[in-house]
Amino acid sequence: MSNMSHLFGPVPSRRLGRSLGLDITPYKTCTFDCVYCQLGRTTNKTVQRQEYIAKDSILCELREFLPEGEADTDYITFAGSGEPTLHSGIGEIIDAIKTMTDIPVAVITNGSLLFREDVRDDLLNADVVLPSLDAATTSVFRAVDRPHESLSVDQIIEGLRMFREVFEGEFWLEIMFVRGINDGTDEIAALSDAISAIDPDRVQLNTVVRPPREDVAPVEEDEM
User: Fold this and answer.
1) Which residues contact 107 (CB under 8 A, 6 or more apart)?
2) Cβ contacts of residue 83 below 8 Å, gap of 6+?
3) Which domains does the chain have, with CATH numbers?
4) Whole-angstrom Cα distance, residue 122 to residue 1?
5) Degrees, nearest 5: CA angle 110-90-77
């Protein structure tokens, strides 16, 4: 794996076992600038989808990995240092993976672009999609996720709901709690309403564990 620039792992994952990561966007190219991100501030905050990294380059590395690494891999996971749905070729990459291996495909996403039909279509052939939803009101959304100015939390919640309606795989929603920002009673009630509307297969509650670059604190375990 030493000569791989778009693949990392397999690494142990609490949710996905031995996960081979695919990093398909440049470092810190994202729709959000989350206060809790361990990678630091977003340097390219954008909603522009494009082929940031050549699909053939990504698939070539995967073909090189599979003969020896397939048996030790539970999931091939789109994750890494940016938002994977910003890559305009993610759907084609997923489809190509399906012709190469039976290893299930997971997509870890902030869910911000699922209101777009093209993004929803691109993820339909994944086996597991793991979007995040850290807030359900505008003020808290802006405080915790610091989104691109064109994005709204209502739009994102509706996108998650619309995708859930058509997606036949597993849909696991994650909420990242940050002390003093999105852990208030009113926000939790709003999140609960949003979760009911989205109807995910699982809801995973997390708090800050990996050291973030900014001064934010976790919610205590007994409060989760």
Assistant:
1) 77, 78, 84, 85, 90, 94, 123, 126, 128, 129, 130
2) 25, 29, 30, 31, 32, 109, 110, 112, 113
3) 7-210 (3.20.20.70)
4) 27
5) 65
Provide the residue type at 75 as one letter.
Answer: Y
Enumerate residues 6+ apart whose C-beta is below 8 A from 142.
none
Q: How many CB atoms lie within 10 A of CB 85?
A: 28
The answer on pLDDT for 12 being more than 80 is yes
pTM: 0.91
Placement of tokens 């190509």 in the chain? 96
* Angstrom distance (rounded) from CA 71 to CA 123: 25
Positions of E strands within the chain: 7-13, 17-22, 29-30, 44-45, 75-78, 105-109, 128-131, 170-177, 202-207
pLDDT in tens, 71-90: 889 999 999 889 999 999 99
Nearest to 127 by CA among 102, 146, 153: 102
Both tokens of 37, joined, read: 């991100």
Q: Phi and psi for 104 in degrees, rounded to 5?
A: -65, 150
